[in-house]
Amino acid sequence: MKIDPFILALLATLCVAVVVPCHGAAVPAFNALATVLIAMMFFLQGAKLSRAAVVEGLRHWRLQGLILLSTFALFPLVGLAMRAGLRIAVPGALSEESWTGLLFLCALPSTVQSSIAFTSIARGNVAAAVCAATASNILGLFITPLLVGLLLGRHGAVSADAVVGIVLQLLVPFIAGQILQPWIGGWVARHKKLITFSDRGSILVVVYTAFSAAITGGLWHILSPAALLWIVGVDLSLLALVLLLTWGLARAGGFSREDEIAIQFCGSKKSLATGVPMAKVLFAGSTAGLIVIPLMIFHQVQLLACAALARRYAARPADIASAGRA
């Protein structure tokens, strides 16, 4: 299993933030750069998205509904249950900021690229995965801020300024890209490296600015090595539970094997590309750097675990893959 170069770049960015954090006059410049890159990323995503593919995928409403329920209902319920259980079994295992980060993770939409890629590798319903991941990200722009307010209670309620920030930085560029899609969609599709650079470049800049603020705000006095291990363990448990539950729900719903694969991979992912910019808007200052730690760890865990699971599905006999289940 090859290591994703982006994971290495993310780790390198964290190291740079630890050694040379952004401070002083450089902070406004990096924040402005992050805002521009995030807007560009969502604009290009909107320009790339085919409306015909969305309409086709939305016809499979049972599958789409189960994936959305897994993303925006099952995940938060599991997260709340884990928090309640651990607070009783091991009080103080995670700080309030870490639990905030975990619940924020649970409220995020699914990934796009990796959900589709793993579904394809596993020989699942790729068309449904494309539409489900796309719908999750579009709806997540509205649902995630509301869920964050509900999950975190009055102390974490989303302010009007945060909602306006999400609309201006994420939704407006996306809609602009969709409006211009008939004219520039083909050009964007031919320049996939531009999308990759926009996605990953914006995440790296936002991570650097967020962690720089966290480092200068005394991150290592708040997050101990033991706490970091607890976050890894909680992320692993969360992913394992959701993978198991999505598999069980798909089986109980009588979906075909191809649909089952799409449900499992799309319903168990969380988007780093959407989560990091949202955290920047919803959580100010050094808090954002600490809150995105569970998300960044979960991102690496889901890539490794789902890559292994996709290969396991792909190794099944072709006759079973084609027959599926009624």
UniProtKB/TrEMBL annotation:
Keyword Membrane annotated: yes
Alphabetical UniProt keywords: Membrane, Transmembrane, Transmembrane helix
Organism superkingdom: Bacteria
Membrane-spanning ranges: 34-54, 66-86, 98-119, 126-152, 158-180, 201-222, 228-250, 278-298
PANTHER family, alphabetized: SODIUM_BILE ACID COTRANSPORTER 7, SOLUTE CARRIER FAMILY 10 MEMBER 7
Record flagged with keyword RNA-binding: no
Protein name: Sodium/bile acid cotransporter 7
Organism: Endobacter medicaginis
GO cellular component: plasma membrane
